[in-house]
Amino acid sequence: MVAAPRALAGIAAVAARLAAREPEHDQLVAVVDAARAAINADECVLWSFSPGGLEKLAASGHQGTKPDEVSALLAADLAEANGIIVRPLLTDEPQPLGAISFRRSSALSAEDQLVLRVIADMLVPWLAHAERARQLEVEVALRTRQNDEQRRFIERIIDSLPVGLYVVDREYRVQAWNRKRETGMQGVSREEAIGKSIFEILHRQPAESLRKEFDEVFRTGRIQTVHMESTASGDARTFRISKIPMRLTDAGITHVIAIGEDVTEWREAQERFAQAEKLAAIGQLAAGVMHEINNPLATIAACAESLTMRLEDMRGDGVRTPRDANEYLGIIDGEVHRCKRIIDGLLDFSRPKPVTKSSTEINEVVEHTLFLVKHHARFKKMRVETALADKLEHVTANREQLVQVFMALLINAVDAMDERGTITIKTRHGRGAREAVVAEVIDEGVGIPRADTSKIFEPFFTTKAPGRGTGLGLSICYGIIADHGGRIEVDSTPGAGSTFRILLPAEEASL
Ligand SMILES: Nc1ncnc2c1ncn2[C@@H]1O[C@H](COP(=O)(O)OP(=O)(O)OP(=O)(O)O)[C@@H](O)[C@H]1O
Ligand SMILES: [Mg+2]
């Protein structure tokens, strides 16, 4: 049979539409339009098989053919019932790819059947291609979503870190910037930072030295760590800045990760530990020396006493004795006692004697100390103010020793202020059970040079004139407070004043 020109034209029209091979909807509609015209049908629908059954892809002259009506006719190669003609679109797979259906009031001629078969066969590779493209699209969407999720997950991780973190590439451009770097006084938002030069973002830091630090990491591939003091957030904080090399490929270092950690607390703890160790060593050394001095001192005291008695006896016998002998012996006795006091003080510091401790209220200790110093001549021109917190937790303490501590701090304050001005004693609730009670002695005195703050708790460190201070006051305070499970610290501004702070554990925490 030779196909008529009309049939060929119809097939050519469908073929032309298919040439684009673009599985877009407009294109599909054009294809079914051409197919309908080719066999002069009232309706043409293109169906595809999806897991849910037949699905309409495109329709021309739609008259409401249902998927069920089409499914019922799929078994045959070309079936016709109730004016619906169906041709399954078959591949090598057992399941048809889809189907094409027509509605026509008159029966198909043999030529129309041929045209229909040809058109259907042309549609098969095209639909298979479209199906593959669709699957690919689904796959791409899935992968993109997984990638986005993965990226968000990694962003969450770096945002949750308690450190400031950013990453620069070899052009020093910011490629990552975490939440911590967005906050604080010098915070910069991620949008603002990403893609910019790090020198532009960290404009407060000298660009040259920053560049050198990055170059060093790019060159050596080793982690660089520096410590930096910063007062940007108000008070002085110490930061540990680490620059870590990163390789995206095996070729070499492509990025540097910079991490900034606030290590202020860690450094302070470190310093306190070193201080405690040093004091313990000094204490042990001093205790040994003092023990050796105690015996000769006792001998001197005994000899002086014997001489005094001897002089009295001689006077009783009417013998004339040198006029200044008694005066000298008095001096010897006085000085020996002064030495004994120093030794006792030092022994107190180095080997705190086991003392009885009981439940103590710190405000009560402060009040008692103030009662004792009130009548002292040196406090005559001083104003002592108190700001005592209510309902402070009790501490397990030896009351006399705590009074001794406050007394030493008050006397130091008076010395620092040259006996005039205001001293403030504050008590307040601290943080956690280990530092539940805080007491501060605040003066407006000369202050302590920064270089001296690490030495003032050492025995015999004094800046006072000979005879005015032995340098034992604070070392004894240190020993007593440490023996109570607490700690003592100082903040001072030369020329403006000092604050000595005692932190003690709550009663139940010191058991
Ligand atoms: N409130 C303060 N203001 C300024 N400097 C202080 C203050 N308290 C202590 N110092 C400094 O610390 C040093 C050591 O103090 P510490 O109490 O241990 O010894 P001292 O007062 O010199 O002598 P001592 O207490 O044995 O009579 C002081 O000499 C002083 O330089
Ligand atoms: Mg003192």
The small-molecule ligands in this entry are: adenosine-5'-triphosphate, magnesium ion
CATH superfamily of the largest domain: Histidine kinase-like ATPase, C-terminal domain
- Main β-sheet description: 5 strands, antiparallel
General shape: rod-shaped
Mean pLDDT: 89
Low-confidence stretches: none
Share of β-strand residues: 15-25%
**End-to-end gap:** 110 Å
* Percentage of residues in helical conformation: 40-55%
Radius of gyration: 47 Å
Q: How many domains, as an integer?
A: 4
Count of DSSP helices? 13
CATH architecture of the largest domain: 2-Layer Sandwich
Beta strands, count: 17
CATH topology of the largest domain: Heat Shock Protein 90
User: What's the SSE pattern?
Assistant: HHEEHEEEHEEHHHHEEEHHEHEEHEEHEE
Strand order of the largest sheet: 2-1-5-4-3
CATH C-level class of the largest domain is Alpha Beta
* Secondary structural class: alpha+beta
Short description:
The chain is of the alpha+beta class and 511 residues long. The chain has four domains: 5-137, 2-Layer Sandwich (Beta-Lactamase), CATH 3.30.450.40; 162-262, Beta-Lactamase (2-Layer Sandwich); 267-350; 358-510, Histidine kinase-like ATPase, C-terminal domain (Heat Shock Protein 90).
Blueprint (SSEs and pairs):
Layout lengths: L4 H15 L5 H14 L4 E8 L2 E8 L6 H5 L7 E3 L2 E6 L8 E6 L6 H51 L3 E6 L4 E4 L1 H4 L7 H4 L4 H4 L5 H14 L3 E7 L6 E10 L8 E8 L1 H53 L8 H26 L7 E3 L1 H12 L8 E7 L6 E3 L1 H18 L4 E9 L7 E6 L30 H11 L3 E7 L3 E8 L7
Parallel strand pairs: 12-14
Antiparallel strand pairs: 1-2, 1-5, 3-4, 4-5, 6-7, 6-10, 8-9, 9-10, 11-13, 14-15, 15-17, 16-17
The chain binds adenosine-5'-triphosphate (ATP) and magnesium ion.
The site of magnesium ion has 5 residues, from helix 12.
